[in-house]
Amino acid sequence: MRMERFLPPAPIPKPLVIVTPLVESHIQAAINCSKQHGMQIRVRSGGHDYEGLSYISYQAPFVIVDLVNFQSITIDVESSTAWVQAGATIGQLYYAIAKKSPTLGFSAGGCPTVGVGGHFSGGGYGMMSRTYGLSVDNIIDARLIDVNGRILDRKSMGEDLFWAIRGGGGASFGVILAWHIKLLQVPETVTVFTVDKTLEQNSTKIVHKWQHVSGKIDEKLLLRLFLGRANSSQDGKQTVQASFVALYLGGAKTLLPLMQQSFPELGLVRSDCIEMSWIDSILYFAALSGEPLEILLNRTSPVTYSGWYFKGKSDYVTEPISETGLESIWRRVLESPEAVDMILSPYGGRLSEISESATPFPHRAGTLYGIHYGVFWTQAGKSALDRHMRAIRRFYSFMTPYVTKNPRSAYLNYRDLDLGVNNKGNTTSYEQASIWGLKYYGINFKRLVHVKTKVDPGNFFRNEQSIPTL
User: Fold this and answer.
1) Are the C-beta atoms of residues 163 and 172 closer than 8 Å to each other?
2) CB 113 within 8 Å of CB 91
3) First to last CA, the chain
4) 414 is catalytic
5) DSSP character for 411?
6) Which residues have a Cβ under 8 Å from the Cβ of 77 and sit 6 or more positions away?
7) Residue range 6-30, pLDDT digits in tens
8) What Cα–Cα distance (Å) separates residue 2 from each residue in 5, 6, 68, 468?
9) Cα 362 vs. chain centroid, distance in angstroms?
10) With a cut of 50, which residues of the chain have pLDDT below it?
11) What is the pLDDT of residue 305?
């Protein structure tokens, strides 16, 4: 709830009530009561939905069910599994795993304050995804309360519903209570690095080569790319800086020859490489290096987002962008009065080995990388809001020739209502919802609609981008 964009005087109705259940029966009661009184439910596990759909509704009246009391995590080292309740954050999960074992981890995102309920149900990309796939690829069971108030596990919900909640978004199908996950082997020593290159340091050629290398390189290495404006070495001028940020599941001794062979253009040297434990790499990527591990238990970000405004969007790329294309993107980045930052996240490895229909998350073989666009600002008021929203939408429009087409794909966990929304009330057609649904889910959208129609025929669990019924 810390994003100013959704606070008064924004024209968004407030919830009638916020329910913070202590036991599962409280959630069942909230569902029954809401159904009886014609109220919608919003379920919040961490509160990081980019469009606030876990805690706001453009259709009053509504109720928030906040799972803040559902944070229990049970680690079973012997079987390398864990049960994690939906209101726990991924930081709490990482901490709980690290306390039990130095050689177990989990594949999930880099922001510790995200709640597992939403993160897992939307996919869950992270720094180990090229080695182990997404969070959803490592979920073996779940507990969920359906529209009739029944508590179901994988066996009683059936494989169709279990398939749907692993990437189709949990909020369309019920209230996720907990996930049963397979913990993953990590070495005692991993290696991280951050190497910055500006246009003056030949970053165009290096970024061009990165596109050809990052998805094919050893799957124990994930090499992410952050792009944005920075001050140039020439006084008073700005340049584009490419920051190459990596996690390698192994030591620097094996990483260096691997990089020299596959990506010598980056010029990685031993002094760039920092060896650490896997859990310390979690702190490193969250910009928390040097902090005690207990900081992962904080439910709010150490960076205070009070007074911040933000809008995010996403894309996928299947063909490398030419050097000429990159140069035109740099010009656009430098010309835009509002700074739009990009994060390029490589695919390949394990991500490509899993079929596009194995889970609702379809961005598999053939995907080179995903793009996250973000714009932040601190100035209050409608004119600043409109200016920054226009800036990111214009930039997104400018990127059209370089990204996927028919459909232009997007990542559900970077929620974007610009892609299209459901009608108010209960009247959205399959065709209308396809406008945004095909972007997130591709060929899996139709199956998600069939599952939704079967398990929630009255479309009780709905929001601005929930799966519609037939």
Assistant:
1) no
2) yes
3) 33
4) yes
5) -
6) 100, 101, 104
7) 776 677 788 999 999 999 999 999 9
8) 9, 8, 16, 29
9) 14
10) none
11) 56
In 2-31, which positions are buried (b, 16+ CB within 10 angstroms) versus exposed (e)? bbbbeeeeeeeeebeeebebeebeebbebb
Taking the C-alpha atoms of residue 409 and residue 59, their distance in angstroms, rounded to an integer, is 27
SS in 3 state form for 356-402?
Answer: CCCCCCCCCCCCCEEEEEEEEECCCCHHHHHHHHHHHHHHHHHCHHH
Amino acid, res. 181: I
Question: What is the C-alpha to C-alpha distance for residues 426 and 418, in angstroms, rounded to an integer?
Answer: 20
Predicted confidence (pLDDT) per residue in 193-231, tens digit: 999 999 999 999 999 999 999 999 999 999 999 999 999
* Token pair listed for 263: 């990506």
Angle between helices 154-164 and 445-455 (to 10 degrees): 140
For residue 141 the two structure tokens come to 């069971």
The model carries a pTM of 0.96
Would you state the structure tokens that stand for residue 132, as one six-digit string? 């182990």
Beta strands in 67-161 (DSSP E): 73-76, 81-85, 104-105, 139-145, 151-152
In order of 118, 210, 220, the CA distances from 364 in angstroms are 21, 19, 17
d(CA 144, CA 147): 10
- Measured CA to CA in angstroms, residue 458 lies from 210, 247, 278, 354, 453 at distances of 48, 45, 45, 33, 8
The DSSP symbol for 193 reads E
Tokens representing 310 are 């933000």
Which of 414, 430, 440, 441 is an active site residue? Answer: 414
Cβ–Cβ under 8 Å, residues 341 and 374: yes
d(CA 180, CA 75): 10
- Rounded to 10 degrees, the C-alpha dihedral 56/422/371/117 comes to 50
Residue 280 is which amino acid?
D
**Residue among 228, 229, 221 at smallest CA distance from 268:** 221
CB 242 within 8 A of CB 344: no
User: Which residue type is seen at 426?
Assistant: N
Quote the Cα angle for 176-124-166, to 5°.
45
Query: How crowded is residue 448: how many other Cβ atoms within 10 Å of its Cβ?
Result: 24
In angstroms, the CA 268 to CA 194 distance is 10
Token pair 């981008």 in the structure block, residue: 465
> Which residues, listed in sequence order, are joined to residue 221 by a DSSP beta bridge?
248
State which amino acid sits at residue 277.
S
Cα–Cα distance between 34 and 171 in angstroms, integer? Answer: 15
- Give pLDDT, residue 443: 97
CA distances from 56 to 38, 115, 288 (A): 16, 16, 30
* Residues ≥6 apart with Cβ < 8 Å to 287: 303
Report the length, in residues, of the chain: 470
